[in-house]
Design goal:
The protein is α/β, with parallel strands linked by helices. It has 2 domains: 10-147, Rossmann fold (3-Layer(aba) Sandwich), CATH 3.40.50; 156-233, no CATH class. The protein contains 11 helices and 5 strands. Strands 2-1-3-4-5 form a 5-stranded parallel sheet, sandwiched between helices. Helix 3 runs parallel beside helix 5, helix 6 (128-154) crosses helix 7 and helix 8 runs antiparallel to helix 9 (189-201). The two termini are 39 Å apart.
Length: 245
Amino acid sequence: MTSPIGETPRCFINHAWREGGHAFALQIREQLRQRGIESWIDEKSILGGEHLKSSIRQGVIRQCNVFLAIMTVAWMHSIPCQYELALAQERRDRDGVQIIPILWETLPEKPEDLDSTLYIDFRDANRMPESVDRLVEAITSGFLIYSIVNRVRAGARHERWQAAQHLGTLENPFVMPILIRRLREETDPVSKYWVAISIGKIDGMKGVKALEEALAGETNEYVRGGIHEALRMKGRSNRNGTCSG
């Protein structure tokens, strides 16, 4: 599939300025620029006279498709950083923007919402080139997920079902809210079938309620078969038109 949003990702670099955090963020930005990846960062991307909060909101909501969180102790206690993270989480659940945590300091604990996310470890300065390589791989993967999600949401008919099928093979738990929304809104039977199957392939019991609700109101037998199969993958379908409790 070709991307509807360009050849390269656009990253928002979320960081705390204190205790060297901003200097490190600028270093990351330059490393990514050398690899052809565009990044949004407040010092470099806000023009004189712009309102800081509205510019940050625009940077997160309109400009980025991958969100990089440079996690430090100062970052954990920064209200602006947590505000930006909350905006990114909204976009992740709505648009498929992927959040990539960058670990620059050892933290007393990791944010609960990002606990299952792959962290890119930059704590060892001697391993900077290897860490940058891993970050670029993570950004490329996150951008791919974002592109696929956009096709699930707004692609042509054949693009929507192909993208829905692809999301299931990735088994990324963070795309579940998007798949659930598509299960409710999709009108094309083939696309809806593959949305259901993808929900079934993602580990855990999330999505079961949405599948059961969709089954109760679905009249298309092809789609019903996909929903039953998804529920079977989650251990809930008995194939007689109802679901096991």
